[in-house]
Amino acid sequence: MQGLEATYHIESTPDQIGARAEALAIEQSIEMPPSAVRQPEVLREVLAQVVSIQEAEKGYYRVVLRFAGQTTAFETAGLLNVLFGNCALQEDVELVDLNLPSELLSAFAGPRFGIVGLRQLTQVHDRPLTCTALKPQGLSPTQLAELARTFALGGIDIVKDDHGLTNQPYAPFAERVPIIQKAIAEANAQTGGHTLYAPMLTGGPKTLLERLQTAKQAGVQVVLVAPMLLGLPAFAELVQDLKMAVLAHPAFAGHRIAPPLMLGKLFRLLGADATIFPNYGGRFAYSTETCMNLAQAARVPWGHLRPTLPVPAGGMTVERVEEMVGFYGTDSMLLIGGNLLAAGDSLLERTQAFVQKVAASVGKI
Amino acid sequence: MQGLEATYHIESTPDQIGARAEALAIEQSIEMPPSAVRQPEVLREVLAQVVSIQEAEKGYYRVVLRFAGQTTAFETAGLLNVLFGNCALQEDVELVDLNLPSELLSAFAGPRFGIVGLRQLTQVHDRPLTCTALKPQGLSPTQLAELARTFALGGIDIVKDDHGLTNQPYAPFAERVPIIQKAIAEANAQTGGHTLYAPMLTGGPKTLLERLQTAKQAGVQVVLVAPMLLGLPAFAELVQDLKMAVLAHPAFAGHRIAPPLMLGKLFRLLGADATIFPNYGGRFAYSTETCMNLAQAARVPWGHLRPTLPVPAGGMTVERVEEMVGFYGTDSMLLIGGNLLAAGDSLLERTQAFVQKVAASVGKI
Description:
alpha/beta, Alpha-Beta Plaits, 15 helices
């Protein structure tokens, strides 16, 4: 079988990097001294190989390791263990890329809706999608539903929960979700629009199942999930039979795993239909290069995997819409939260301005 | 309600740290400009407060924030979101400690066995426990069972799977677990000992349930789980009705969350009976201070939570047993893997030497 290749960014020195790369190959495969391995076939077939070492910048090296695909057990947890299990605890190592052989790639179905499916759900085919968030924390279901109604009347495509909304006493999931979904349905009936509500779904397996039933009964078609908060194996299993589109949130994704790999490639592999990430120039320190690589990882052709919709967010403003559409192109969704809410009594007008700017920006790309 | 306090280590400058701390308080609570919040009670009750800012070392500050307990929804995912949801993506922030008010602490049951329960299972009451690992990857169930038998004959208390063993084609869970469990039971019958086998349990909820059934049917009493690989909400729910002791593995726990907090305090809060961590002086760069703080976080008195057994591991040797026992004391478990396996044909003798050294070390503490 063709091997699984992973690329690491390692802090080291010219005289030590060779040994450091070998040590990493051992750590992530057999995890014991090769000299103590009594089976020659294990050394031949299971011990990871150092494929290449290149100096990346002063004191840092790009190291490619090749693993036997079968050590991943062709499942999420096994793959993560091989890629970044123990070395997650070693601060000199960052995981920056991976290359899956076809036998391993075929074990993952990827997004079930993807960009095409999200466009069908929202009936938006020729422009970037728009998204906003219900916040702040502390509002009641009725208050959240009123916000949602205004956003829907303003023509937003997807109105999502703040990712912090789980099941707080002031806005329990079972109470909040049907009320918000109903408010949006009423606004849609009024406008002829197709705004969708994406409630935040999280919890252990049992809790998750209960909330999923609530969401289904309410008619929800898209859910917001933070894969790293939920656990990646649970996330991958969740999307299997979900029949709802999945908007991935980056909360708790703070590993030394490069964002284009984690939020772009890995979340796509495990089934995110859309992936939210911090836009450049906002409250987070992502560079334009990181953002573009992330967006591309989400939507470039990759085997049988459907493309994932990139969703830049975090401190964005209506004023930046044209710039964002120019940067990310039509196959994207712009998420603006606080900057809409800051309009106060003019929330509907600011929302409409956002939606119109996105529509108008398309001819200018 | 008394608040939830979290301590962060932030990289900043004297003139910027005040604003940086405020921005973090906003990010982790209301996540929108306070000026845009229309409900005064949200600003009063939900917006996090900066409690203190202290210079820690040049360019770094210790910042304590106080959150409203209800924003956690009294559940794992909500707690993690509040503590480290979005700021996991901000590289200038490390989460270093937390202080739970009693209303929040009482929502978590903690370890179901803890140190006392593990001592009952292993029938070891007056010395540190011993632990080893079945490896390398690539061995068949029969080969793993033979290793396990030798370790049990040598008197090891807990023989665990290598954390990389999930469900590989060369050692499927359903085939491997009963054979290894049986080999250990036979050795116990021969020696009169009480060696336990801890198989690695992982996967999405359905897979987990299937493997759990297999383990239960085989008579397994302890499982090895990597909480961060599984997802912390899934981990917390798993231990609820498990009726098996849980040995936590640190794989994939690579956040900017201080190890004593993550592997000591948080894993204990969520129910780990024992917690494996990289020992100082091994293949990982943990300091003696980090290791001691971690061990203490796992076992100091903390509300109603049972103490968790600290399990130093990673490049340890039989030669270091006395030093380790002196450092960690009796309420610990020493995990030595590769250094035993390196004995080759003398595996039984090296295992016995390890066990005897631990027993002999007690009088010397």
